[in-house]
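Note to self: keep these together.
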Amino acid sequence: MKKWYTLGMYLVLILMVYVYNDEILHWMQYGDAPVLLIFAAALGFIIVPVIPYKIVIGMLGYMYGPLLGAFISWTAASVASVIVFWLARYLFQKQGRAYLSRYEKLEKFQAAIEKNPFLIILLARLIPVIPQAVVNVIPAITSIPVVTFAVASALGKIPAMLLYAFIGSNLFAGTSKLVLSVGVYVLFLAIVYVVYRFWLKKLLH
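Structure:
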């Protein structure tokens, strides 16, 4: 009964954010809302991704500056990841294990997480091509502690949050800073990819 109640509350949240997403975005951008309410709205857009969260990060960077905008975005994303992790573990852990057993690569990813949970989750967050939903749900199906997931996940989100908040804050301030920040981020991703290529990929094959 508790599982159905939790699932029902989650579905209500999805419906509300989906129906009123334009109004919420307008209110976030032009309304004089307290930071806590802005945080709650950002949290809703992560849990219910009706628009790309990169847009929300950029908008918060434009509203509050790169550091505070990135911090609000990062905090909301980190909390949302733990919520999704907890929901997946609480509601679908048994079904998830059965589902993963059908797909060899996903099962190998699960095994790699159980061997090196902190580093695998951290790297998976840093690599943009890995779907974030996968990084939230697959660790939930394993037996790793929620604290390990939360810390690794939060640290892995920092570079992208800083980049998109910086882009949002400098959207109308010329291109030189934007080009420099994107270049630094691309270099950082190249280093992460090398680590993935020669270490993480070996664990998955």
